[in-house]
């Protein structure tokens, strides 16, 4: 006798509603989890967890479900709400502003910023910062981080400028293969119509943001600007105009001292060649 399907609770959250609608449309289409897994190219066990809201929805699944069920963007819309739920309240405001940003300028002193991380790089970071977490918890965080990156492919998407301290590309994260893939991703973003990546070389010496984590300046759709400063375990949203102007000045000075995109690409390729 087949086990009774777990009861769904779509009124609890957008994530639960996503799972409920996924099961409803699957059953309306007369599809089993096995047959849906074949269509959307996901494991049956993973789809079962998404239906019951036991795992965070990966960013490419909603579009595949809409194509499979002919639901005209329903699952994309539900995912637009559900993707915020894994993040604590203090980060949701930041993500809402990030989604409104027309220009994003970032500085990172230690790690590749989340918006341009590869899955494996993000996974390595989550594992080392929380070694007791199980694999499902890690994968949920990775899926949430990859979901944030969807805004870069939006229409219209923001213009993204990233300045990295040279330490970011010299410190291997996750091993040589993971780091090489991450550096290749950065090289691909160095100089495109919507992205720029520059390195602040070791030779520059001290600067105003030395020792900090990640600084993100966002110019929003209403022309206002906000700053998000992220440390090891906390983040601070800054909206006071004078403080925003000060951070803008710090960032502009670093951009003046940073390598050009062409020289940045050469320096990143050098770092790739030095990996064992």
Automatic annotation (TrEMBL):
Pfam families: DUF5753 (PF19054), HTH_31 (PF13560). Residues 21-76 form the HTH cro/C1-type domain. InterPro entries: Cro/C1-type_HTH, DUF5753, Lambda_DNA-bd_dom_sf. Signal peptide: none annotated. One of its GO terms (molecular function) is DNA binding. It comes from the Bacteria. This is Helix-turn-helix domain-containing protein.
């Amino acid at each position: 006798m087949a086990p009774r399907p777990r009861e769904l609770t779509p009124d609890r959250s957008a994530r639960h509603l996503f799972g409920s609608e996924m099961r409803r449309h699957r059953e309306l289409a007369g599809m089993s989890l096995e047959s849906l897994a074949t269509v959307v190219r996901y494991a049956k066990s993973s789809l079962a967890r998404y239906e019951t809201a036991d795992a965070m929805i990966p960013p490419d699944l909603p579009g595949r479900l809409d194509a499979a069920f002919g639901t005209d963007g329903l699952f994309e819309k539900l995912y637009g709400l559900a993707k915020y739920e894994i993040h604590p309240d203090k980060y949701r405001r930041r993500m809402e502003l990030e989604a409104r940003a027309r220009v994003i300028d970032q500085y990172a002193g230690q790690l590749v910023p989340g918006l341009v991380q590869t899955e494996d790089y993000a996974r390595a970071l989550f594992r080392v910062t929380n070694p007791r977490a199980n694999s499902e918890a890690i994968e949920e965080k990775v899926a949430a981080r990859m979901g944030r990156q969807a805004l870069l492919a939006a229409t219209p998407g923001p213009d993204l400028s990233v300045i990295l301290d040279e330490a970011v590309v010299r410190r291997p994260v996750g091993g040589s293969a993971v780091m090489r893939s991450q550096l290749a991703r950065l090289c691909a973003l160095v100089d495109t119509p919507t992205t720029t990546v520059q390195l602040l070389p070791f030779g520059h010496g001290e600067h105003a943001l030395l020792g900090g984590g990640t600084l993100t300046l966002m110019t929003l759709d209403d022309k206002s600007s906000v700053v998000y400063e992220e440390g090891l375990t906390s983040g601070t949203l800054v909206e006071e105009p004078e403080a925003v102007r000060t951070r803008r000045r710090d960032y502009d000075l670093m951009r003046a001292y940073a390598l050009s995109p062409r020289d940045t690409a050469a320096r990143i390729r050098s770092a790739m060649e030095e990996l064992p």
